[in-house]
Design brief:
Oligomer: single chain
Radius of gyration: 23 Å
CATH topology of the largest domain: TIM Barrel
Distance between the termini: 49 Å
Number of domains: 3
Strand order of the largest sheet: 2-1-3-4-5-6-7
CATH architecture of the largest domain: Alpha-Beta Barrel
CATH class of the largest domain: Alpha Beta
Number of strands: 18
Largest sheet: 7 strands, mixed
CATH superfamily of the largest domain: Aldolase class I
């Protein structure tokens, strides 16, 4: 069956779609003769904007390193204005798409974009259109394009199906009734469902498919958990990595699915995975080596929820054994097993940046969320990482349930004391999701759930996500609203006194990794510093 798989806007134009590259590789491996096309409509939207505005066009070339000035921070800062302009125009498209879902009438600007996207999608007259959706905003674009396609006269018969990480965070039944242009949703991991779709199986036989059956909605049983050993490496060739906004390829990698820890009470990331598993270390490094040969890629961004220290040391050891000149980032849990020697090995293997799940500087709150870390250990780990020449990002969550002013101030003091070792702090406001530990035991934690948060609305109805509205007990029986927005705003004011504003803190992830590689402090004689 002629099929097209689509990554819709909006997303960072430096990000090469890992999930879609993985799915493409799997489908080609299972059916080499299949008639399959993949489209990244996100990057194509950015290039279309470049064709309409000279400053955006210049920025696209600059971010690809075409003028050799990418690492000039002053020039980079000036080009961020055009980057912001492009994002603003994409956001305007998004607002128009949201209204289009309610009214059925696109604006002239949105209609022009949808016409452009329709031509790209329909080039090969597909009988199956599948969207790979990661974020809520992408869902709105996918639905708008689907509705636009269905509204056109003389359109050939085809199926439109949605899948991807987003569908672990949306009420699928509501979506199917609110969006009749969609034939079905794939919930959870989608390799087997995608294969069945491309071979023409009816929706009622496809594993993990949510679909309409008359006036009801049915969900087919999910497939067995896919072994990562059985999946081929993601194939990035159809995406042409040189098109993305970086002066050299920065490729996303995935060592594991799910989370080995799986105990944090706030986390909803595991809802779409069928349990934790990983690939073999030797095979992972084989893939890195192959990408180095095929694309000249030296920089790799691990998209795992986090990689445990044992696996990290095996990966680092294999990279060092093969003497690969590669560099990488990963997300880590700052636990006591890390030590100075660990970071020496990681630096020598090419680690230049770690995003740490710190969350809070209050030990009571760390225990409450079941993080498995302690404040003193976090401080030591981050300081040791910094001393080894690795850049550190502290990922924080403000407004955790039962958080107090004293605990907020303690977190601010904690970050202030570590300001010499932390390069960037990211601040998230706590959100409550259905299915998490906090939601399942809400009364135990003084949480009163007041309803599901609307995600978007169409002319046919409202669609809710898994994010929940709630109130907290405040000790006097009246309840208090969530503290997340208040604490996050307070942090934004205080951080200006702790961390000096910098260009790197405004970089997207791929650019920051390149920056970290370029500016690494080579504290070991045998470690290479990239010129």
């Amino acid at each position: 069956m002629r099929s097209v798989f689509i990554f819709p806007p909006p997303a960072s134009p430096s990000y090469i779609p890992l999930g879609l590259a993985s799915l493409y590789s799997f489908l080609c491996d299972k059916d080499p003769s299949g008639d399959l096309q993949v489209l990244d409509l996100n990057i194509e939207t950015w290039y279309r904007l470049g064709g309409q505005d000279g400053s955006i066009k210049h920025m696209l070339a600059f971010m690809r390193g075409e003028n050799g000035r990418f690492y000039d921070e002053g020039r980079y800062e000036r080009e961020l204005g055009a980057w912001a302009l492009a994002k603003e125009r994409v956001e305007k498209y998004l607002d128009d798409a949201d209204r289009y879902l309610k009214t059925g009438v696109p604006t002239a600007e949105l209609g022009g974009l949808l016409d452009f996207q329709r031509e790209r999608v329909m080039e090969n007259d597909p009988k199956l259109i599948c969207f790979s959706v990661m974020y809520p905003k992408q869902l709105v674009f996918a639905l708008a394009l689907s509705a636009y396609l269905r509204s056109l006269p003389d359109l050939p018969e085809m199926k439109i199906v949605l899948g991807g990480a987003m569908f672990s965070f949306v009420n699928g039944r509501e979506l199917l009734f609110a969006c009749p242009e969609i034939d079905g949703l794939v919930q959870g991991e989608g390799e087997e469902a995608a294969l069945q779709l491309t071979t023409g199986e009816p929706l009622n036989r496809i594993q993990g498919m949510l679909y309409r059956d008359g006036d009801s909605v049915r969900l087919n049983p999910k497939p067995d958990t896919v072994s990562l050993h059985a999946l081929p490496a993601p194939d990035f060739r159809p995406f042409h990595p040189a098109r993305y906004l970086a002066p050299e390829p920065v490729l996303p990698m995935l060592f594991s699915r799910g989370c080995r820890w799986r105990k944090c009470r706030f986390c909803a990331h595991n809802l779409g995975f069928s349990g934790y598993r990983s690939v073999r270390v030797a095979r992972l490094v084989d893939t890195i080596e192959a990408y180095n040969d095929i694309f000249g890629a030296r920089c790799f961004y691990f998209a795992d929820q986090y990689i445990g220290i044992g696996d990290l040391m095996r990966i680092a050891g294999e990279i060092k054994k093969r003497r690969l000149a590669v560099y990488f980032h990963y997300m880590g849990q700052p636990v006591g097993e890390y030590n100075r020697e660990t970071f020496e090995t990681l630096f020598e293997a090419g680690c230049r940046w770690i995003s740490w799940g710190v969350e809070s500087g209050s030990q009571r709150l760390l225990d409450l969320i079941n993080k498995g870390t302690n404040v003193e250990g976090i401080a030591r780990v981050i300081a040791d990482s910094h001393d080894a020449g690795i850049r550190n990002i502290a990922m924080m969550i403000f407004g955790l349930p039962s958080s107090t002013d004293e605990e907020f101030n303690r977190t601010v003091d904690f970050l202030s004391c570590l300001s010499g070792s932390i390069d960037i702090v990211t601040a998230s406001s706590f959100s409550l999701y259905r299915g998490t530990g906090f939601a399942r035991q809400a009364p135990t934690f003084g949480i009163e759930i007041t309803g599901a948060r609307p995600l978007f609305e169409t002319a046919r109805g409202i669609v809710h996500g898994l994010k929940l509205d709630y109130r907290e007990a405040d000790g006097n029986g009246t309840g208090r609203p969530p503290r997340g927005p208040v604490e996050t705003a307070a942090w934004e004011r205080k951080k200006e006194w702790i961390f000096e504003p910098s260009i790197p803190s405004r970089m997207c992830a791929e650019h920051y990794l390149l920056y970290a590689v370029r500016t690494a402090r080579s504290v070991y004689p045998e470690a290479e510093l990239v010129p």
